[in-house]
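User: My collaborator sent over this chain with a note saying "see what the structure looks like." That's all I know about it. Can you take a look?
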Amino acid sequence: MKIIINITIFFYMLSTTGYIAYLFMQKDLLQRMAFYVLLAGFLSHSAIIFYDFLQSGSFPIHNLSETLSIAGWAIASVFLILQYKFNLKILGIYAAPLITLVMVIASQLPKEPVEVGNLFDSFWLIFHIITIFIGEGSFALACGVGLLYLVQEHAIKSKRHGFFFRRLPSLDLLDNTGYVCIITGFTMLTLGLISGFVYAKSVWGRFWSWDPKEVWSGITWLLYAAILHQRLTTGWRGRRAAIMAIVGFAVILFTFFGVNFLLEGHHGSFTKI
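Assistant: Without extra context I'll predict from the sequence alone. Here is the result:
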């Protein structure tokens, strides 16, 4: 299995190299090659997760290494869907390095499972984890689209149509793609929170326990709900939406890492090293 993990990381690294080459050379062949190599990495990544599931008999989130692997898989899956729908070729210059970084970190962490009894033996946990991570993968890409939007907007306003202006798509396409990412992420996050409530009730006997991860997940949900509300009611889009997509992802990173390592709570069992 170690060989398959290394092959997966190699595919992701090769895809990153291809997208960087595409950024500078603007050859469609390079972009297509990078995309298909990333797809190959995603397929081998899926095989790893499926194998770990069969081996352990439960969803592979028994330590931080496996949890990060699921996070990388979720980002890759959302990126592949976005690429198919919007053909936003340049987004790979953000997605591929991010997936590679996550997988490299995951591969270097200890693989020993945390002893948490029968916490993992639940359909609701599997559904909760999948929906939450796909939602967060969508928000991660919304952040990337927001960064590209700000770069392109700066190029346009400066009236120096240089390197990035010629390589990035229109502001409208970037804005619409970011909106779709946030809509998708918010929907999946909502489903993830609901299934998490059901799971918590079945395991701890209550829907809500004011666990720090629960509190910050609620804050994240409210933040993205506010972003969507502002867009739908006041036309909040463009630069402001791009900035808020970046801010939102920063909150997600704190919820995932900061809460687990700085605050005590029962969710820490899923992300211990």
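A starting point for your reply to your collaborator: The mean pLDDT is 87.
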